């Protein structure tokens, strides 16, 4: 059985094993971040829509759970773009929580939190993970390249308003990029903004998977330590802790369903295939190499595989 909206569980250093729900079509976002691991945004929009029928997503979710997937710590709503663009996200969260006894997390860029209705829709979730990488309109445009209707001030106001009233946990994320936001002055300005937001944790992320722009790179170690000191955040490193999983029987299709949202390096694919007792690993790699929808990128000395086009 193949699944359209569900994937994983995939390993996450923050969430353990995360079962992904994607209610957003590929690369549909109101940002086009220079570090995005999905590539550049091809459908730039700030218009919320029911991109996929809610009942179809929920039916697939139930079928996925019935197929025996139970080893996961979080259900994570994380589109192939920005999940808050899904206009029925509140109902989606409520229905998932009514069906499984697991916490629901939403990974978002946070831009739509300036809308009261969106903030209310997130009330049923247990954890929201918004991003803040910039400290003013100029750095916002350089790093996140937002939709033209989004201003930095309204974005920050939305994060602050949301953080004041949300009853669940908020884990902020900060993507640190060499030469863009890794110097002391930038970090101190970002810290001033973080001080206005109430959150439970702050993660410092690094662009460890192939980014949308190939000039994006990881800051030096001393800069990362400086960021930890100034921001007081937790820094994530490259290695994932747990294994990938897919309920799709066919090994190749299972890998394709994961790399659609989450690029995998050669070692991750190998251990995924080992775990499934795959006896023709070389053949799978050959098929990946030949598939014109699969891009192989060299990054940090590893071959990383990601899907480049819509393959449903
Ligand atoms: S990183 Fe997230 S917010 Fe940025 S372009 Fe990619 S999907 Fe959109």
UniProtKB/TrEMBL annotation:
Q: Which Gene3D superfamilies match?
A: Aldolase class I
Which keywords belong to this entry?
A: 4Fe-4S, Iron, Iron-sulfur, Metal-binding, S-adenosyl-L-methionine
Which InterPro entries is this protein grouped with? Aldolase_TIM, Elp3/MiaA/NifB-like_rSAM, GTPase_Obg, rSAM, rSAM_sf
Q: Where is the Radical SAM core domain?
A: 13-237
Look up the record and name the cofactor or cofactors this protein needs.
[4Fe-4S] cluster
Task: Cite a single Pfam family from the UniProt record.
Answer: Radical_SAM
One of the entry's Gene Ontology molecular-function terms is: metal ion binding
The residue ranges crossing the membrane are none
Identification of the protein by name: Radical SAM domain protein
